[in-house]
Amino acid sequence: MSEQEKKEGQGTVSGGHPTDTSDRMNRTVQSGNIPRMPARPMHLRPSGGYRQLRSFQVATIVYDATVSFCDRFVDKRSRMVDQMVQAARSGRQNIAEGSRASATSSQTELRLINVARASLDELLLDYEDFLRQRGLPQWGKDNPQAKAVREMGKNHRPDPTDQSNPSDRSDSEVYSPWLNHNDPAVVANAVICVIHQANYLLDRQIAGLESQFIHEGGYSERLAAARIDEQRKQLQADRSDPTAKSAPACPVCGAMMTLRTARKGKNSGSQFWGCITYPECKGTLPLETSGRSI
Q1: Domain residue limits, the chain
Q2: CA 177 to CA 174: how far, in whole Å?
Q3: Distance CA 1, CA 17 (A)
Q4: What are 275-293's pLDDT values in tens digits?
Q5: What's the CA gap between 232 and 223, in Å, rounded?
Q6: CA-based Rg of the chain, rounded to a whole angstrom?
Q7: 14 neighbors 45 (Cβ within 8 angstroms)
Q8: Which H or E run includes 83?
Q9: How far apart are CA 88 and CA 62, in angstroms?
Q10: By C-alpha distance, which of 67, 74, 58, 84 is closest to 184?
């Protein structure tokens, strides 16, 4: 892990316990007017956590196997080499990038994991095309070798405490009887099996992220919700301001509205009611009435 990654990872450790950095942030919050935010669940750590994800480990096997496959069995002048290698790389890299993005936005993380899933689907078609166009057999799910590859994926897990190669915890060596085979059909079929394993893991990961986003949101989503809640509290608390008592409800989303001043246009300098959730909601009302929107 680089020095930058170590610095980025100092905010929290596994299990969500605060470190010195978060302690200093909490003291700052307590001494000022900023409301304390709830701790973000660290299901996917923003720095380094993706290396322990099984989906990332299997996608790494797919990427390495594809680079080797193209080098051995595909004409280097063919565009297929670049397309297959880039699809395999995209599958792996977007899992890592999505895990990093989880620090600020669960929505961005979800989008990137879906990109990884789509890239591996594209790669799967490339391997199937390779077999079909050359008249080579494709294993069915009941093929003995396909079953053997699947069982290898189910039963073997790399040791997370093994620090011998911290940059890559891939367990590709267990698939070497198939991936190093001299028959391109065997190699292609084995990689297809591993891609299916990666896709299954990504489907489960996406389902978990969707549920987490619905129930918890991400850092930026909760920050926006806290900002809206704080604005609502300030508007309700300021009883000395007559506009706070008479503030209408937003005709679009139903949230409270606040007085705003137009900065440009023919109404520049005039006041109007604007939704406190702006820019999420752009509902407005003229100052003289709360019954119709502009």
Answers
A1: 1-32, 37-219, 240-294
A2: 8
A3: 20
A4: 888 888 888 888 775 444 4
A5: 14
A6: 27
A7: yes
A8: helix 79-101
A9: 7
A10: 74
**What is d(CA 128, CA 191) in angstroms, rounded to the nearest whole number?**
10
Task: Report residue 288 as tokens.
Answer: 């003289």
DSSP-based helix, strand, coil % in the chain, nearest 5: 60, 5, 35
Q: In what order do the strands lie in the sheet with 257-261?
A: 257-261, 271-275, 284-286
Are 109 and 44 in contact by the 8 Å Cβ rule? The answer is: yes
Beta bridge partners of 12: 18
The predicted model scores a pTM of 0.61
Residue type, 206: I
pLDDT digits (tens, 9 = 90+) for 24-77: 433 433 444 434 444 444 443 444 478 889 999 999 999 999 999 999 999 999
- Cβ atoms of 188 and 134 within 8 Å: the answer is no
The token pair at 227 is 């900002």
Tokens found for residue 250: 């937003």
> Can you give the pLDDT at residue 205?
93
Q: Please name the residue that has the structure tokens 């391997």.
A: 127
User: Which residue is associated with the tokens 């196997």?
Assistant: 65
Q: How far apart are CA 148 and CA 204, in angstroms?
A: 22
Scanning the structure block, which residue is given the tokens 């990884």? 116
User: Residue 107, Cβ neighbours under 10 Å: how many?
Assistant: 15
Distance separating alpha carbons of residues 220 and 101, to the nearest angstrom: 11
**CA gap 283, 115 in Å, rounded:** 34
For β-strands 271-275 and 257-261, DSSP reports them as antiparallel
